[in-house]
Specification:
Organism: Hyella patelloides LEGE 07179
Protein name: Radical SAM domain protein
CATH topology: pyruvate-formate lyase- activating enzyme
Largest sheet: 8 strands, mixed
Distance between the termini: 19 Å
InterPro entries: MJ0683-like, rSAM, rSAM_sf
GO molecular function, one term: catalytic activity
Strand content: 15-25%
Structural class: alpha/beta
Bound molecules: iron/sulfur cluster
Shape: globular
Oligomer: single chain
Order of helices and strands: EEEEEHEHEHHEHEHHEHEHHHEH
Helix content: 25-40%
CATH class: Alpha Beta
Number of helices: 12
Keywords: Iron, Iron-sulfur, Metal-binding
CATH architecture: Alpha-Beta Horseshoe
Radius of gyration: 19 Å
Length: 306
């Protein structure tokens, strides 16, 4: 889905262990990566960390681990780009010099969660937001963490901002199977509500909210309506199919695990196409019945700002 990141680190040092995760500190040479492929509607992707403590079973980003060992241990290591804010300041200043009248489009983040648990302590994402405010980029933030609420004071100052909350299922049981370390579905739905109702609406500011159901995981029938109902708080729902099993380009080390889970949920994945279309139809029907102003977008198109 995303082009591999350029290698920008040297002298990795294991300094600490945070909740079972090995933490490596590194000095990044660059922080804004040219956005390509799936992300090519942006100028840059921005990843303050490499690796992700959430370690979701289906995560494509594991395929971009720096070595085989870390690929196999996806979720158990994180590289902290300690100097990210300083490098970002330099790179944005350079952009401004080159394009004084064009704000860059930035996607935070493509191969990590910028609000994974470590961010409580490191505050690296917060430091990047502070730097970006002076440059007012078009910014999209992708996360599954309620920690983003901490930064409402900064988020409220961006003029063109979309927040994508990842919620791939409406069933907590399914969430615990596919992404056991991640925040609960309930807390994520509360998060999107808090963001929506606490980031002030201002004239000439363009603030938008999405829920990304990517990849679409099973939702038990008894949870479906409640889940869909709660999605009406956002202006966009993004759907994406699970990685196709014959697609080797993004085969992550965690893939076996994810495939075993797909077998467990054969009632859904036995006819994947049907389940996907069925869920999409239910979303459409419900939003239409409620006159909800929510667009349903699929795949790459849904990840753009507009
Ligand atoms: S939160 Fe995102 S980046 Fe992190 S493991 Fe899950 S899918 Fe991958």
């Amino acid at each position: 889905m995303i082009a591999p990141q350029k290698e920008t680190h040297h002298n990795w040092i294991v300094r600490e262990n945070f909740s079972g995760t090995d933490i490596y500190l590194a000095q990044a040479k660059t922080i804004l990566n040219k956005a390509t492929g799936f992300m090519n509607s942006y100028d840059f992707t921005l990843n303050p960390y490499r690796g992700c403590q959430y370690g979701c079973s289906y995560c494509y980003a594991a395929a971009f681990s720096p070595d085989k060992n870390r690929r196999q241990n996806w979720g158990n290591w994180v590289i902290v780009k300690e100097n990210a804010a300083q490098i970002l300041e330099k790179e944005l200043a350079r952009w401004q010099q080159k394009f004084p009248n064009i704000a860059p489009k930035i996607y935070l983040s493509s191969v990590t969660d910028p609000y994974q648990p470590l961010e409580v302590k490191r505050q690296l994402t917060r430091s990047l937001l502070k730097v970006m405010l002076a440059y007012q980029p078009t910014l999209v933030i992708q996360t599954r963490s309620p920690m983003i609420i901490r930064d409402i004071d900064l988020l409220s100052q961006f003029q063109r901002l979309r927040i994508n909350l990842s919620i791939p299922t409406g069933s907590e049981r399914v969430r615990k199977d596919f992404e056991p370390r991640s925040p609960s579905i309930k807390s994520r739905l509360q998060t999107i509500n808090k963001l929506k109702y606490n980031i002030p609406v201002k004239a000439n500011y363009d603030i938008r909210f999405s829920v990304t159901i990517t990849p679409l995981l099973p939702t038990f029938p008894e949870d479906e309506i409640n889940f869909i109902q709660q999605l009406t708080v956002v202006d966009r729902v993004v759907l994406q199919d699970f990685h196709p099993s014959n697609n080797n380009t993004l085969t992550a080390s965690t893939r076996k695990n994810a495939i075993a889970l797909k077998d467990k949920y054969a009632w859904w994945y036995g006819n994947n196409k049907h389940s996907y279309q069925n869920f999409k139809q239910k979303l459409q029907d419900y939003f239409t019945a409620l006159l909800a102003d929510v667009e349903i977008m699929e795949g790459k198109a849904g990840f753009g700002f507009d």
